[in-house]
Model the fold of this input.
Amino acid sequence: MLDPKLVKEKPEIVRKMLADRHVQFDFDLLLSLDGKRRELIVKTDELRKLKNKMGLDVATKKKSGQSADSVIAEMQKVSQELQILEADQIKVGADYDRLAMTMPNLIHDSVPIGADNSANVVVRSWGAVPKFDFKIKDHIDISQELGLVDLERAAKTAGARFYYLKNSLVRLNQALIHFALDFLTEKQYGLIQPPYMINRSSMEGAIIADDFENVIYKVQDEDLFLIGTSEHSIAAMHADEILEGKDLPIRYAGVSPCFRKEAGAHGRDQKGIFRVHQFEKVEQYVFARPEESWKEHEKMLAVAEEFYQKLEIPYRVMLLSSGDLGKVSAKTYDIEAWMAGQNSYREIVSCSNCLDFQTRRLKIRFRDKSNEQTQYLHSLNSTLVATTRTLVAIMENFQTHDGHISVPKPLQKYLGSSTI
Done:
């Protein structure tokens, strides 16, 4: 949610943001509702003052032995009118809030303007693309030949885009999680394993829920959803709290399974484990002071880059354009890993600064002293590792001529082996 003061006083900034994002949003209706809301606030305040004054007049007349019947009759009319106005104020306020909650975040000046991902910008690349002196395979063939993934039986028991990990790939998956948690623990991140379900009000604090209806799974007859990422639950963890300034920044490492419908992914990555309904992820999540959030954003990206450098997975960093940017984010970097079997870079990390968009919705504030005015925090999130996609990169980039997989050095101690 944007600052209502900014929306009212600088509407041109919001209009430009909406145009740059190429999104449909009825901003004129929002301004109209805001005007009605403010007008009703003034009218109800005036009527309350009038009603209070009439109450004093009634008391004065009764005290002096005069009849107060006419004033009482007028006061009853004012009370009825006030009830109507208060009901209108509640309705208009709710309509305003409902619409305002669907408005996207502002965009940072450094974000390239464009309609879609064709306007994304390559920031830098790292690592040499591996060269092979044999015919390379994609992760589907590798995993099938080594007995590491069973897609057919998963389709039988759960449907498309599910999988059974088997044998050494189970251990490699767990090795990625253990390595990621050890890696972030060394960097003083607090470890969080959140609930795997989230209620709607908490979810709406972290995301624009209407946009996520086709992405996450709803629990039937319950006010609960399966989480699409630990980010949403961690964002809501401090809802309605005032945090101590001395504790900032607060850096969390969230670990959880993630459940997604992938409803918009028809025809893409239908086979294999790159785009699936269920996977594990270790997430960075940071609460920071507003003046420090952009520095924290670059730090989070650097942490993610270091992780993949240690795994020796070649990648490139992409700066997303305004038309490809998520609505909650003011600026997002993606890290795309080289996938040798696909001869292309594919997204494995998304790193975003959400400014006060989430914290304003969730009412998460901070102050340095108890007598100070509170401020909204800034919140940031970044994937560290989504295990299935990283498993794909490892299988394809570390395949050997004899049909096996070399295990990246940092993972060997967890796996107890250098080869699969």
About this structure: Residues 117-415 form a domain with the BirA Bifunctional Protein; domain 2 fold (CATH 3.30.930.10). The chain has 14 helices and 15 strands. The mean pLDDT is 94.
